Amino acid sequence: MAFNYLIPMLEVENMDETIEFYENILDFVCVKRSQNAWSLMQKDEVAIMFSDRFFKEEHPNTFMTGSLYIYSDNVDVLWQILKNKVNIAYPLDNFEPGKREFAIFDNNGYRIQFGQDLNTN
């Protein structure tokens, strides 16, 4: 039995605002949507699903203790495009072991890291 792929599903307060952020800021496309119940966003090989809130009474705010890490083929260009349009979690920098990356917060407060491997040649 094989696992084929992973698509994270994140709860959001406002589906329209989330779709607008991912389409207009991050250049994703909404490929499927079921009213406000869920949506599937995709850019190149990266897919993320969003859903309406399941446990809003128990957890009044959306949260995730981790982040989404998206590999890019040119993180420097992506940084230039996004740095003045989004809430920055941390700026572009080099990290061990051999990563160049930065992180932003989306409109829901979820942290998204963008990075690429540094050439070690």
From TrEMBL:
- Any idea what this protein is called? Bleomycin resistance family protein
Note the PROSITE patterns from the entry. Answer: VOC
Top-rank taxon: Bacteria
Question: Which residues does the UniProt record annotate as the domain VOC?
Answer: 2-117
| Family matches, as SUPFAM superfamilies | Glyoxalase/Bleomycin resistance protein/Dihydroxybiphenyl dioxygenase (SSF54593)
Q: Which organism is it from?
A: Formosa maritima
